[in-house]
Every structure is written in structure tokens, then in C-alpha cells.
Predict the 3D structure of the following.
Amino acid sequence: EAHKPSNFLRQIIEKDLAEGTYGSRRWGGSPGDAAHHAAGQPDPARVRLRFPPEPNGYLHVGHAKSICLNFGLARDYGGVCHLRFDDTNPEKEDTEYVNSIKDAVQWLGFGWDNKSPAGHESNLYQASDYFDFMYRAAEYLIEAGHAYVDEQTVEQMRISRGDFAHPGTDSPFRSRTPEQNLARFREMRDGLHEDGSMVLRAKIDMASPNINLRDPAIYRIRRAHHHHTGDKWCIYPMYTFAHPIEDALEQITHSLCTLEFEDQRPFYDWLLDRLCEGGLVATPHPHQYEFARLNLTYVLTSKRKLAQLVYDHKVSGWDDPRMPTIVGLRRRGYTPEALQLFAERIGVTKSDSWIDYSTLEGALRDTLDPIAPRAMAVLDPIKLVLTNWDAVMGAGKLDDCSAPVHPHHPELGKRSFKIGKEVWIERTDFEETPPKGFFRLFPGNKVRLKYGHVIECTGCSKDANGNVTEVQATLIPDTKSGTPGSDAVKVKGVITWVGVNDAVQAEVRLYERLFVEAHPDAGGKDFIENLNPNSLKVLQAVVEPSLAAAKADDKFQFERHGYFAADRVDHAAGRPVFNLAVGLKDSWGK
Ligand code: ATP
Ligand code: MG
Ligand code: MG
């Protein structure tokens, strides 16, 4: 993949492929359950990655980075990427989220069909399928003297764990025999003990400088209904125990996670080393590599906080076009190509930083510009009357105008519309008393109506409050765009317009950043206080007749305004609704 810029993960993968690191994977000890696990026989020639979301919310732009990274690396190196639902936590999970995650991955352009010779039809996994194996692994650790049941209170455990400055102290339950621990653990499983009354802990080192190695809890009692396993279990594995096992069972080679898990890596390795010794998983086991999570200015990337915006009705739902969720971005007008380009441009690094929101918008603009059909729209219309129209063009007459669908793609053809005596123009394109440097309409000035004629402004009408209600101008004959000699009259301004005669009414939704602070949840302030009260503006606009045929999700460049998408939910034939996806220029810093 010479055309892709390298990064530390690509280098690691290329080295492992060159050295055949995973080519001789085998099980040590006696054959364990691993031989029967879901992923089947080793597939040594391939890199295997995984994207392991917890199905407890809708995915956001940070997850898009991770999806593009994992599925993209698998694609580039002839490997496989698993979509794995990390559903070991019974309480927060829901099939609504499972379905939305599948949709998001597919929409982004990735799938989980297994093209591998291992012969499995799908690379769709769910961690709860491994509960039996995880339980077996826990019993193995107990039998081998690597785990014990601790009956201290939560508070006692917290105190005895110590802190950065002080080593921990051993639990009085730490010296129980494997037989005692096994009996206790089975009682936990069989529901003989209260929730929270005891936990299973790995027996590692209470004095370790890494607090994660001070006998972390690996199983807890929790009487909760699981969306997949129902009431079968009243004990559930902790995430830090479950995750390495999931990776190992699926024969993942490179387990990519965000930097905050760096301190967990020693436990990841400790656990899989023990299970390799016991012959429960194959060796070499998967390795964890950390990369910087996406932090995007003006954006929250936390499912919990995004959920709060939804449940507190600060936005219209998970797919509100202002939300950084994949469904929100999609509704706003983002495309898979734009998010892939964004992921490529930000790359992967080993240190946290903030990506400027303009990088995301730039990726959308750069992917839409070459393909989006053009159209004229007047977002804040005021009527312009061409007072000499009847004399010059003929009373009631309409004149045909046309424009390319796309300026660089003549093969896409032309759009046509008509000009008549009355046209809609932008209110801001007229000034009775023009400020310096204003080249558009003011009395005495000439401008071109784009794809139409040159006109000269003659005046305006006002209401009792002095608000302009209509602008008047005269049409200058023989200046129509595309006709010989049409550029004889020089003008400094060109304005967009829509003929009153064939205008289509449309609702246009303009969006601004959802938060006024670049780091919405920093500084101790509640992020709700940082919401931008002006993040949505709804306009009744007029658009050119070609847009009457727009279908939901279609994207356009409204000339001079930006890129717009027909709303996926509310747009309908006869009731067009367009969302501002991104402006024409980077206005983020304004
Ligand atoms: P949240 O904190 O928003 O709930 P999470 O990390 O708990 O996110 P998971 O469902 O566990 O959500 O995430 C699945 C994968 O997505 C993980 O491998 C995680 O590393 C990755 N991921 C989550 N957030 C980001 C982010 N901001 N940037 C890059 N990757 C991310
Ligand atoms: Mg998580
Ligand atoms: Mg998180």
C-alpha cells in the first residue's frame, strides 16, 4: 500500500507479516476449549483486527475513526476485521443499538463477510457468546493459584489497593486454597451470594507500581437480565478480563485501542500469558496497541454525554443533524467518502491532541465539490421587479435560462429555469446605502443575474417601518449570459436568484456548531451550559425548479451558499427540506 502514508501501526503490521509472527500459532499445554471456539482453526497468513463497540449507544465520529482504522488496515493488508459487540455488561445494552451499529459500519463502506479460507460465513461476533469459556478460564486461574474470591467490602478493597504513593496490602482472603476459592466461585455462579458481596480477583501483585496489577477484580455478582443470555448468569466478567479473552478466541492479531487503555496492557498480557500456559488460548496471543482517540473541537465524543443531549431534548434525537453521531452526520449530509477521507487525513498517532473541526468540514467539502450538482437557492428572499421587462421582453413573457449541472462535468448536462418580470433575490444583496466595497445591488449600480442578464438597480419600496419590501431594477438588453456580446457591459457583482414564476418553496435548515466552547466539556463547567442557542435556524427559502425532483439524501451545492442535503427524514416530494451540510469556505474561525 505504497500510496498510503505509513504510520506506527502499519509498520508494526508489516513487520509482523514479514516475520510471520502469527504464522506458527499453536496451543500449548493440553488442548483446551480453544479448539472449539467460534473462530475455528488458526488463519496464520492474515492480520485480524476487530472493532468492538459496546452496544450502549449510537456510534459517533470517534468510532468512525476506529472503524476506518481497523477495517481499513484489514482491507489494505489482505486481512479480516471482526465486528464484535462487546456486550458483557448486562445493564446498558439494547438491540436498538446493535442494529444502529451494524448500519453505521455498513454505511461507512465496510462489512463483516468472511472471505477467509477458515470458512466462516461472517465476522460478526458477540462477546456474550464466550461467557461459558470465560467462566472456564476463571476456574482455570483459580485452579492454577492465579485467582481468589475476595469477600472484603468495596470500601475495604479500595483502601487496601493503596495508591500511586503507597503499595497495597493483601486481602485476608488472598491466602485461601484453590479448593476453597473454587467452591466459593461456584457458589457465586449458583446464586448463593448477594450482589456485591464478593468478587473474583486475579492474584498478581499488591505492590505493583501499576495499580491495575494490584489484584484486579475479574468477575462480579450482578443479578441482571442480559439482552442475549437472559437470566442464565448472575455473575459477569469485568471488561478488563473479558476483552483479552474475546481477542484471543477470535485469534485477533493486533488489538487496537485508545490510549487510556495503555495502563491495562500489562494485565492484558498477564492474563493471556496465563491462559496460554494453561493451553486455553493459542500462542502467540494477540497484542494490544494504543492510538490517540479522536478529540474534535466543538464536539462531544462520549456516548453518555450524547445520550444526555437526547434524553434532555437538547437535540431532536440521536440523528439530529447537529449531533456528531454517525446517524446525525449522515442526516446532515456527510458521506462515507467524506468520513473516510477525514480518517485518512487525521491519521493515527500515539499522543492525544485536538483536531480542528474544520478538518472534518474540509473533508466533506472536498468530497462533495467534485460531484454535487449545482443549484440556485434564495434563502432570505426579497422580490426584485424588472420595471422595463414588458417594454423590452414583452408583457407576460418568460425567457429560458440554463446552467451546467456541474461546471467541470459537461456530461451531466444542463439545468434550466426561466426568468421573468419578477425574481427573488437575497435580501442581503441589496443595500439602499451601500457600505464601501459593496458591489451588489444599490440604486445606480449594475450587476449580473447569474446565467441571466445584467440589470441596473433603480430603487426600492419600503413599509411603514422603513423595511425594504421590494427592489426595482431595469434589464439591460442584449446582455444575457451565453449570447454574443453579452459581456460588453462590465459589472463587478454577480448575484444568484430564482424566478418568481418557477420558484419552488423549500424549508432550509441552517446549522451552526452545537457548542460555543471549543472544548465543550472542559473546565469543570457543565457541557449543557456551553450549548449554542443559535445552532439551528429554520428558513422558508425559494429554490430553482430542478430541485423539485430532489430525493431524500441527495446533495447539492447551492451556489454562493454551501453544500446542502435533502433531509433523510423530513424531505418529501412537494415538501422539500434541505440541511446545510457545510459552507463553501472555512468559516469556522470567524
Ligand atoms: P464512549 O466513551 O463514547 O462510550 P467507548 O470507547 O466506551 O466510547 P466503545 O463502544 O467501547 O465506546 O468503543 C468501541 C471502539 O471505538 C473502541 O475500540 C474505542 O477504542 C473506539 N473509540 C471510541 N471512542 C473513540 C474516539 N473518540 N476516537 C477513536 N476511537 C474511539
Ligand atoms: Mg467502552
Ligand atoms: Mg469511552
Remarks:
- DSSP finds 13 helices and 27 strands in the chain.
- The longest helix spans residues 61-76.
